[in-house]
Amino acid sequence: MKNSIFFNLIAAIVFMLGFAACQKDELDPAAVYFSDAELAEINDNTCLTVIPDDLATTFDETPPTEGIEERATGMKNKFWPTGGTIRVKFLNGSAYLQNKVMQYAEQWEQNANINLVKVTSGNSEIRVNFSSEGNFSVLGTDAQAVSQSQKTMNLALTDNSSEAIIRRKALHEFGHAIGLTHEHQSPLANIPWNVPAVYTFYEQIGWTQQKVDQQILTKKTWAQTQHTDYDQQSIMQYPVAAQLTTNGFSITESTQLSTTDKNFIGRIYSNQKIKVRHAANTTYAITFWLYGIYHTIQPGESMWVPAKTSGNQLSIWECIGNNCAWDGYAPPYGYNYKIVSQGSNGNLTLAYD
Ligand SMILES: [Zn+2]
């Protein structure tokens, strides 16, 4: 909030100066330079989580998004088993701080069928360290590959951190820990980035252009994620300053789970699912939408996906020649399904499996 007021003020000054001096649309690079104190604050509040890019892109059409209300983004195949127990061990920190972080982490648990349990000895899935090293977390089940002697999450928090900052960092990093990626990198994110300004901004906290590309500008692919439409209110969204976009668009930092964060995690970590299999005669991945979430499946792949117990609407993105559109179905709950080719012109259809 403090930053956004500052950003708006600077943006207004830059606008006036720019208008008087050169009447160009280009952003004055001075708009994105900050004092050491401001940089320290930005650095302290920036999530450094690196989202793995280990799945190939096989889907390059962009389905339309009209009429979709639900939004959030998770990395496919990184979620923990539904109903499972995830043990959380703190490597340091006061009892006060540990309890605060755990209290906020449990907001995820309250919305999803997972059990976050604090342990003080033995093995654990999530290991939390407090230090000024920055904020980051290993993504979802990738934590299983981390040695038990190593942290999987770092939080730049102290006993003096404000309630809102503890809440934001705990909710955001635990979002990563249960499989969520950054919302500004959703396949459907539509932030009008001013790329040179973004590079200049993050350069000041030591990020290379390559790192900015990886962490900020590059969207995840449809095949990498299970996601809904783009949710600016998500706890997994970075704040976006107006001078980092081409048209003054900005996003204020969230410190709470959004309605869609709760709905999405609840559906992903639920046993109320139907199975859908890619059985079409194509070498391409297929994207379909069901119960507010887009899923992309590879040839031969099956997925259990969240569904309502009645009244399901399932849409398959299909292209016949250059003509692409959503093809809608109403599959009853309680059955398995397959997507198959109908003829050889690219027409797909949903069938019982
Ligand atoms: Zn993050």
Summarize the structure.
This protein has 353 residues and is of the alpha/beta class. It has 7 helices and 15 strands. The protein has helices spanning 2-21, 36-45, 95-109, 163-177, 195-203, 209-217, 259-268; strands spanning 73-75, 85-90, 115-119, 126-130, 136-137, 153-155, 225-227, 273-278, 286-290, 293-297, 302-306, 314-320, 323-329, 336-341, 348-352.
Features:
Immunoglobulin-like; 4-stranded mixed sheet; 353 residues; disordered N terminus; alpha/beta; 5-stranded mixed sheet; Collagenase (Catalytic Domain); single chain
Please explain how this structure is put together.
The chain has 353 residues and is α/β, with parallel strands linked by helices. The strands form four sheets. It has a five-stranded mixed sheet with strand order 3-2-4-6-5, with helices on one face. It has a four-stranded mixed sheet with strand order 11-8-14-15, with no helix packed on it. A hairpin with a 2-residue loop joins strand 12 and strand 13. Helix 3 (95-109) crosses helix 4. It has helices spanning 2-21, 36-45, 95-109, 163-177, 195-203, 209-217, 259-268; strands at residues 73-75, 85-90, 115-119, 126-130, 136-137, 153-155, 225-227, 273-278, 286-290, 293-297, 302-306, 314-320, 323-329, 336-341, 348-352. Among the domains are: 85-177, Collagenase (Catalytic Domain), CATH 3.40.390.10; 272-352, Immunoglobulin-like (Sandwich), CATH 2.60.40. Mean pLDDT is 85; it is low at 1-25 and 53-71. The chain is globular. It is 25% helix and 21% strand. It binds zinc ion (ZN).
